[in-house]
Design brief:
single chain; Pyridoxine/pyridoxamine 5'-phosphate oxidase; oxidoreductase
Length: 218
């Protein structure tokens, strides 16, 4: 067994106080996102600020988490795209309660979002799909995401065949591929602090569509 008990660091880059937060968690997320984006632009880590972990309840009863890319957010929610027939798509179909999490280690920040996922409209999915590079479009067509395949060569050969079929042709969005919007019901902001006395502020959506804020013990 490898002992990792000495993996420690002190978090001292920022603070999260009730006197400096907006009433709406989306506004705070927006502020943090762009602060981290600016910080990452000055670093050499090459991190994707919009990378987030999506956690679902699997059909086998186990929770499962995977990293996807956030593609849009506003007051309504957080949008990402995937294959609806994938493991995560089938899990969301059965139970739309999901969790999104961002960990921006260079800024010593974390955001955890509980919400309800629903498919975006066909127009939104079409518009995003049309904006993708041709290779990404073909990748969405060729991949039966989460299905067992015999080899890497099988996938690459299928892609070559599609490249010939779609040569000088428009690649249309498969009906089983599109977006999800996660409508938040709870958003927690975590700011690392010294001595493990981290700042944790939780926003909870109330019945009258206002957000209640509470400080949590670290």
């Amino acid at each position: 067994m490898e002992d990792l008990s000495n993996y420690r660091r002190s978090y001292e880059k920022s603070e999260l106080l009730e006197t400096n937060i907006p009433e709406d968690p989306i506004n705070l997320f927006h502020r943090w996102f762009h602060e981290v984006e600016d910080f990452e632009g000055q670093s050499t880590s090459g991190a994707e600020v919009n990378a987030m972990t999506v956690s679902t309840f699997g059909l086998d009863g186990f929770p499962k988490a995977r990293v996807v890319l956030l593609k849009k957010y506003n007051e309504e929610g957080f949008v990402f795209y995937t294959n609806y027939n994938s493991e995560k798509g089938r899990a969301i179909e059965k139970n739309p309660n999901v969790c999104l999490s961002f960990f921006w280690h260079t800024a010593e920040r974390q955001v955890i979002i509980k919400g309800i996922a629903e498919k975006t409209s066909d127009i939104i999915s079409d518009n995003y799909f049309d904006s993708r590079p041709e290779g990404s479009k073909l990748g969405a067509v060729v991949s039966n995401q989460s299905q067992v395949i015999p080899s890497r060569e099988f996938l690459e050969n299928n892609l070559k065949e599609l490249e010939i079929i779609y040569d000088n042709k428009t690649v249309e969005r498969p009906k089983h591929w599109g977006g999800y919007i996660v409508r938040p019901v709870e958003v927690e902001f975590w700011q690392g602090r010294a001595n493990r006395l981290h700042d944790r502020i939780r926003y909870s959506l109330q019945e009258n569509y206002v957000w209640k804020t509470e400080r949590l013990s670290p």
